[in-house]
Amino acid sequence: MSFSGLIRQNALVSSQISRGFQTSAILASVQSGRYKITPKRDRPLTYEMANPPHLIAHRKGWNSWNTSNLRGELRTAQCITEDAFIRKFMTGTWHSLVLSEVIIKRQFNHIRIAALIKQGISSRKMYFLIGYTEELLSYWLQCPVTLELQTVTDPKDVIFKYI
Q1: pLDDT of 85-111, one tens digit each?
Q2: Percent of the chain with pLDDT over 90
Q3: Do the beta carbons of residue 83 and residue 101 sit within 8 Å?
Q4: pLDDT number for residue 73
Q5: What is the mean pLDDT of the chain?
Q6: d(Cα 105, Cα 124) in Å, to the nearest integer?
Q7: Which pTM does this prediction carry?
Q8: How many CB atoms lie within 10 A of CB 79?
Q9: Cβ contact 93:115 at 8 Å
Q10: Contact 33, 52 (CB under 8 A)
Q11: Number of C-beta neighbours around residue 138 at 10 A
Q12: Three-state SS letters, the chain
């Protein structure tokens, strides 16, 4: 038997061998949604970021308030895509001014967007950006959009703790 014949026969045998299922020990702590502690403990966290994921609805609110995740709803994927688009649009339009997470609340055909904004621009520019954001999002999403913004003078006021 030639060398290439042995290789083909070996490949045929190895493809027929069943694979085993590998397991590992269960970790006692959940890692997803938690922030890693820095050596100098200089990473600032807001209140929303400081609470772990299992405390959602206890000490922490939802970032999207809607009923599209209920059984039988038709727009689940569309709402998730729209929420991601709204968050990207807000952080891009209000560049380096958004201090908290963008909260999206849907009520019937109305979308309300809440966030904390730094007082880094004049009131004229602020009102322009509010109108600009509301008009464009209303046009793209085909429903009324209202911004509920609160301004903060010092960005350190939003920091809840350092890790």
Answers
A1: 999 999 999 988 988 888 888 888 899
A2: 25
A3: no
A4: 72
A5: 80
A6: 26
A7: 0.68
A8: 18
A9: no
A10: yes
A11: 14
A12: CCHHHHHHHHHHHHHHCCCCCCCCCCCCCCCCCCCCCCCCCCCEECHHHHCCHHHECCCECCCEECCCCCCCCCCHHHHHHHHHHHHHHHHHHCCCCECCCCEEEEECCEEEEEEEEECCCCHHHHHHHHHHHHHHHHHHHCCCEEEEEEEECCHHHCCCEEC
Q: Which residues contact 92 (CB under 8 A, 6 or more apart)?
A: none
Of the candidates 100, 88, 99, the one whose C-alpha atom is nearest the C-alpha of residue 136 is 88
User: CB-based burial of residue 104 (10 Å sphere; 0-12 exposed, 13-18 middle, 19+ buried)?
Assistant: buried
**In whole angstroms, what is the distance from residue 18 CA to residue 57 CA?**
46
Residue in 66, 113, 112, 109 with CA at minimum distance from that of residue 94: 113
| Mean pLDDT of the region 51-59 | 73
Question: How do residues 18-43 score in pLDDT, each as one tens digit?
Answer: 566 666 666 555 666 778 888 888 88
Which of 66-70, 86-90, 150-154 bottoms out in mean pLDDT, i.e. has the lowest? 66-70
Nearest to 162 by CA among 36, 34, 41: 41
